[in-house]
Amino acid sequence: MDRGGEVTVGSWQPHAVQVVSSTWARDSHDLFDFEAHHLHTKTFSVLSSMVCVRNGTDVQMMREHTSMPVGSEPLLRLVQKDGYFWVDKVSPSSSSKKLWLVVRDSPPGGHNLAEGDVMKLGRFKFKVRQFGVHPGSQPELRLDDSGAVCCPEGKGHDDLSQTLCRICLLEGSTEEDPLITPCQCKGSIEFVHLGCLRHWIRGRLNLAENAGGGGPGIGSYFYRPLACELCKAFYPTYVSSSTSRSPLVEVPQTTPPFIVLENLVRDSQQHATRGLHVISLGEKVLKLGRGHESDVRIADVSISRCHAMIRFQRGHFVLEDNDSKFGTLVAMKKPRLLEPGKTVSIQMGRTVICLQVQPDHGFVGSPPLLSLPSSSHNERALRLALLTRGSTQRADVDPHNASTPPTPVGPAQTWAEGAVHQQTEAVSGENVEQPDPLD
Ligand SMILES: [Zn+2]
Ligand SMILES: [Zn+2]
Predict the structure, then answer these.
(1) CA of 188 to the centre of ligand 2 (A)
(2) How far is the CA of 193 from the centre of ligand 1 (A)?
(3) ipTM confidence score
(4) Has residue 306 been placed in a domain?
(5) The domain containing residue 154 runs over which residues?
(6) What is the pLDDT of residue 279?
């Protein structure tokens, strides 16, 4: 581990992190109202590893490994390691609160999406399934990663010469129009012609009409899996023949660049359908929102008329929030390094926390070289490196105050109503509580 040789740890003073928490007074579907006038806002200046907790609408910074007040909920960890600050969820377990990056506060120009990202608009989630950039690439229409393939029966076409298709009631199977068994039905309704099934699906999905108009580019459509009306089994995504594999549903050719977004639908959301939005972008912009002009339209009160946009720019798919009421978020997948001068905003339920490393005030030295794995492939190693085992190994808050007892640290100044953020001092161990003006 290279710790930057000539820099002695004693001369290096870590920067402080300014933490501004804003909590919406209402507790509704884990939403935060970015247009709300009454927010509970607090500003902290943090010099060492801390855990941020919320109790009702009150947010506090606590030292790690101290017991939390009853009824409080941990939100995030701020980890100071070798002079750098990282932000992460409180524990690696899935029960730990999810951290969501607030896109409207990301650097100008928007947030560069990656395949596998989960975005959240209002209370709706989408998974970025696929980017299509290169000529000739086509969407993978798999859901739940099954990508089931239906193969024509092992029997030859001759063996099926007396077998009836359940749709057209005609017998016979050919290479061009084989009899297949696409679902769990058995007996006299087991077999169906591929052509007959496709004809039935065409009538159900109206893909050709969707692809013609409305979409921003050529070959945009919404794909949803269909189930057999009798046995309720989902039809396979693909059908294979002796020579090739093709989608069971006859989808239009999509012109790259395109993006595939999956609706992540919970069973309780009846007004949304599980499926894939395939959208060709080209020079155009993909609009997500409640309005009729949207390419991905979501009819829900938590969605603004024009909520967010995705554009293809210099090889990237860029997500931008359009000042939406309930925000556009991207799930944070791994610990994030706080870079000096750059603000990171993170939402956890009804609280948004803005983090910014403060420029050092007359401190000497520069940070030791970063010795932590920053590769995106090494999330586990990164988490392990950031784990602390008790309070002993930490270089503490302020060397002149080394005797400060390891008690929970209150904010230097607790709250400021609305958008007014009070300037705070770098301080620890003091707790300047003020009464809640809403009481
Ligand atoms: Zn048939
Ligand atoms: Zn069936």
Answers:
(1) 11
(2) 4
(3) 0.97
(4) yes
(5) 149-247
(6) 93
